[in-house]
Design a protein that fits this description.
Blueprint lengths: L4 H26 L6 H18 L3 H9 L4 H16 L4 E3 H8 L3 H7 L8 H4 L3 E4 L10 E4 L1 H11 L15 H23 L15 H20 L8 H9 L3 H17 L4 E2 H7 L4 H6 L9 H4 L4 E3 L10 E3 L2 H7 L10 H13 L3 H8 L2
Helix pairs in contact: 1-2, 1-4, 2-4, 3-10, 5-6, 9-10, 9-12, 9-13, 10-18
């Protein structure tokens, strides 16, 4: 999704500074004596100060804020972004990166920690390791990940007039399908945020970049609201009608939509209670705060909208959560319920699988 005009101008300035950084690296490579160590350090510092003064918008800002990237890590990211866009190749070695950002042997060795597999730049999914032994930082090749590049590309893309016109929903099944895709993205975000092994380490090798997923979630959430706003019959959609009558919040609606998708498209009776709460949480603190969503006395339990099964020692978050039969039928259109055949299930599953390609996600939103 393209940025607002002001943020777009900020991004243009940031990319101009990325270009300066790339040109500086190429000049030094061509003529190592062109700058003294002091000159090079000063020029890098000036670029870093300008970037900090402008601020990182869009996907870059989400990434830097979400993973607490420092100025030097941002410089590494901008150098590799310039290399991908204008450098004639997608990757640089650790030695090429470090010798530009940290122009001394001591600086290179101390800066090498920022390129290790467990460092925020790689761990977040912003950078990808290409070949070589990741333990040998200097010889390892790095590049900006496809996911981050796609997110930045969506920030700068300007659509032709009318191309992004929001279509109304044709029926309530389309609305439920969008909620289903949103719930799938939220489950993937939960896997990335809370994928922790018994020793407290994240399984970063298998998790996805949270900033990219969050951007997709935000875009689709906005899209759903926009489509509902231009749909004359939206007030008659079962989920909308139920939510208004019982004053359901967004988290409660997403949990119901996720449970419906599990039943209709995957044949699963439900989800683990803790997965439901993780799905609507953005941090460990948020997870603890939202635990009451499924406890006795919550709106979902009080109104009979979910059923809790197989709790261990009456611990609610160890249970499985599912929809009561009447509610599944109601959300699908009460007496209008249409059978969802195997072709529809396969198509929906394949679409969710392909959502790992964020470029397709944004393209499909504008189809």
């Amino acid at each position: 999704m393209a940025l607002a005009i002001r943020d777009r101008e900020r991004l243009r300035k940031i990319l101009d500074l990325s270009d300066r950084l790339g040109r500086l690296r190429r000049r030094v490579r061509k003529n190592p004596s062109a700058y003294t160590r002091r000159d090079l350090t000063q020029k890098i510092g000036e670029i870093a100060s300008r970037v900090a003064a402008i601020g990182l918008p869009g996907a870059l800002g989400d990434l830097a804020g979400g993973h607490h990237l420092g100025p030097q890590e941002v410089m590494v990211l901008l150098l590799l972004l310039n290399q991908r866009v204008t450098g004639g190749g997608r990757h640089l070695t650790g030695r090429e990166i470090l010798s530009t950002i940290f122009p001394s042997s001591f600086g290179m060795l101390t800066g090498a920690a920022r390129l290790r597999p467990d460092a925020p730049l790689v761990r977040s999914g912003a950078l990808e390791i290409v070949g070589a032994d990741p333990r040998d930082v200097l010889e390892t090749r790095y590049r900006v990940s496809d996911e981050l590049f796609d997110a930045i590309l969506s920030d700068v893309t300007v659509s032709p007039p009318g191309w992004r016109e929001v279509p109304p929903y044709r029926n309530h099944w389309e609305h439920l399908a969008d909620l289903g895709v949103l719930s799938a993205l939220l489950l993937r975000r939960a896997n990335a945020l809370f994928d922790v092994d018994p020793y407290g380490n994240r399984a970063y090798a298998e998790s996805e970049p949270v900033p990219v997923l969050q951007r997709m979630i935000d875009v689709l959430g906005d899209r759903i609201r926009e489509r509902l706003a231009v749909t004359p019959e939206a007030g008659r959609f079962p989920m909308v009608r139920l939510s208004r009558r019982l004053h359901l919040g967004p988290d409660e609606q997403i949990i119901l939509a996720a449970l419906l998708v599990q039943e209709c498209f995957y044949g699963n009776p439900g989800l683990e209670a803790v997965e439901c709460v993780k799905m609507v949480s953005v941090s460990a603190e948020d997870l603890l705060r939202k635990r009451p969503l499924l406890l006795p006395g919550s709106r979902l339990r009080r109104e009979g909208l979910i059923e809790i099964e197989d709790a261990v020692d009456d611990r609610e978050l160890t249970a499985e959560v599912c929809l009561p039969r009447w509610l599944a039928s109601h959300l699908l259109g009460e007496g209008e319920r249409e059978p969802i055949g195997p072709d529809a299930r396969i198509a929906f599953h394949e679409y969710l699988q392909n959502l790992e390609d964020s470029e397709r996600f944004f393209r499909d939103l504008d189809a």
